[in-house]
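User: Can you predict the 3D structure of DUF1416 domain-containing protein? Sequence below.
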Amino acid sequence: MCGAQAGGPDASTIKPGETTIQGSVTKGGEPVTGYVRLLDSTGEFTAEVPTSATGQFRFYAAEGTWTLRALVPGGTADREVVAETGGLTEVAIAV
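Assistant: Sure. Here are the predicted structure tokens for DUF1416 domain-containing protein:
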């Protein structure tokens, strides 16, 4: 089990200038708990966080192309995102 605290898109905690990828995971249109993995442009594992009770997650990452992999009971889904330096990238992942 991952030791990271479940993330949640509370924009007030984002530090200016940080590259942030955040969003939520749903299954059947409803928020779902599970994990989200951050994979680099070559598919290598970089980080993993549990989702909050409302399916939310957040990563602080470097600029570039990333793959988010949602792992929830009964399914997985991948989403490719492009993060820009100092920007906030919002992502919705439907499993």
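Strands lie at 20-27, 30-31, 35-39, 45-50, 56-60, 64-72, 75-83, 88-94. The chain has a mean pLDDT of 88.
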